[in-house]
Fold this protein.
Amino acid sequence: MKLFVSLLCLLAVVTIHAQQKPTDLDKSPMDMSYWPNNYPLLKMNGKAKSMPVARIVYGRPLKNGRNIFGGILKYNELWRLGANEATEIEFFNSVKIAGKLVEKGRYTLYCIPNENKWTIILNRDLFSWGAYTYDSKKDVLRTDIDIDKNTESVEAFTMYFEETKNGANLNFVWDDVKGSLGIGLPVFKK
């Protein structure tokens, strides 16, 4: 009986130590966007005909009165394209970006912002915090996109897919800046 009580006490101690305190609310919450938009709702309502084409998972930093581009995000310096962990994009089918075939799979997404264009980078290295372990040898694709000015300032960095005739645009908006990365579905000849 003494051994049984000792084991119960040990189990209680292990259980208490095994539980973790919930984390505080993150100032840059994680978000996810699908192509097609609202894919989980479509699936739940029986309207999804297949797997999604893509989804993106990213941290959403806030402007908080700061000067963003050319300020806290220096021009010509690598940015994780969000906050906290490096942004990840997953393609459930092969796609075409800037005329190049990108195989289905998960990638990190980085950006080198400039005043009039951004260089968008797809990289194979997953599970990265920010851009601290970025390795250009693992780049799959680099392409430039044009940047425009918004008519109004956007507080939270936002990425979303917008369907087009031949695929979708992955749109980026924050502060008074907006850009778009065209993503096409590959056409395979029979």
Summary: The chain has a mean pLDDT of 85. The radius of gyration is 21 Å. Residues 13 and 19 are 10 Å apart (CA to CA). The chain is about 10% helix and 45% strand.
